[in-house]
Amino acid sequence: MRFRHPDGSVVHLSYCTNVHPAETLDGVRAQLRDHCEPVRRRLGRDRLGIGLWLARDAARALTNDPAELRALRAELDSRGLEVVTLNGFPYEGFGADEVKHRVYRPDWTEPDRLAHTTDLARLLAALLPDDVTEGTISTLPLAWRTPYATDPGAPRTARTALTTLAQRLDALAELTGKSIRIGLEPEPGCTVETTADAIAPLTDVGHERIGICVDTCHLATSFEDPGTALDTLTAVGIPVVKSQLSAALHAEHPHLPEVRTALAAFAEPRFLHQTRTRTAAGLRGTDDLDEAIAGRALPDSTPWRAHFHVPLHAPPAPPLTSTLPVLRTALTRLVGGAVPLTRHLEVETYTWQALPAELRPRTRTQLADGIAAELTLARDLLVDLGLKELP
């Protein structure tokens, strides 16, 4: 979906296909047929943006066979779909029964991460619509904090990899005329947990094609103020490459038994649900929701937030809620000003099938309806900020 910002530029809104995990190229094609096109039809749009997730095997198949890449581009066109952004965070296995810490490997100290991201950049340059010259890719925020923190050479290795990537992106732009930018995506528990944590490593790299991806669920989970975070990034010259529009799980009174019971329904085995609370002494946290619920690992006199991407249009029932207000505030700062801070927005609710059983979609139709409803909410927020939806 495209929108005209009051400054005349085009802002793109998509949804991320990691909600339909597939490891192979055939699986990607099935996503387009069974999920993405039906969502577009529900929205009544001739064109729908998707934030494509290409796992390692699918990316390699496209890299090794230019005919397959051309065929994928043609299929996107025929189904009324367009790609201006990729989710390069998960490498493989995102549809496994247990993902947890696996999603952080390989990290930016490992050669496979650089090779995969380079492949994604080249593929995106070929998949961009003819009238679009800029693409974006989100990636993991260097690494999970361990063992990175105990390896003295890790920061230098990661910096070298990102610098090499920037040089490759420069060469790609010269060759194709397409500018591809990469955004580190701060996430709780990682080396770069907050936007503030991103400043030092990105300043070290010091390249306009390497910036940050602001995920509003992660921002909220870490209790970051959106205005402060974005103003700081602007002040130090770090670009917001893209933003993932998402909402975290919020518990205002975690000391109450009924709140603990409600939270327990969201503690599931597939993904990590890092949980945080803000106290007078600073931010406190656990690496998963069940750790917080089970004992006294977290103070419970202040609100808790958990890294669980709650559907935007459907906050959990009381006594829980979502951090949709944080998303609204962030979006106002991102695109509500005289000039947008980013032009690529992506709804990323990959946890539909991880919801409590009674809330999970049971059919493709129900899932498509839910994704369409999320995109409708995001669209309405953009229109309220003065952006005009384009055909």
TL;DR of this structure?
The protein has helices at 25-43, 56-64, 66-78, 111-127, 145-148, 154-176, 195-205, 216-221, 226-236, 257-264, 289-294, 324-335, 364-384; strands at 2-4, 10-16, 48-52, 81-87, 134-139, 179-184, 210-215, 240-245, 247-251, 275-279, 282-286, 304-310, 320-322, 344-347, 388-389. It is an alpha/beta fold.
Care to describe what's here?
With about 400 residues, the protein is an alpha/beta fold. Helices cover about 40% and strands about 20% of the residues. It is built from 13 helices and 15 strands. The protein has helices spanning about 25-45, 55-65, 65-80, 110-125, 145-150, 155-175, 195-205, 215-220, 225-235, 255-265, 290-295, 325-335, 365-385, and strands spanning about 1-5, 10-15, 50, 80-85, 135-140, 180-185, 210-215, 240-245, 245-250, 275-280, 280-285, 305-310, 320, 345, 390. Strands 2-3-4-5-6-7-8-14 form an eight-stranded parallel beta barrel, surrounded by eight helices. A five-stranded antiparallel sheet has the order 11-10-12-9-13. Strand 1 and strand 2 form a beta hairpin. Helix 1 packs across helix 13 and helix 4 runs parallel beside helix 6. It is globular and about 55 Å long. The termini are close together. The relative contact order is 0.14. The mean pLDDT is about 95.
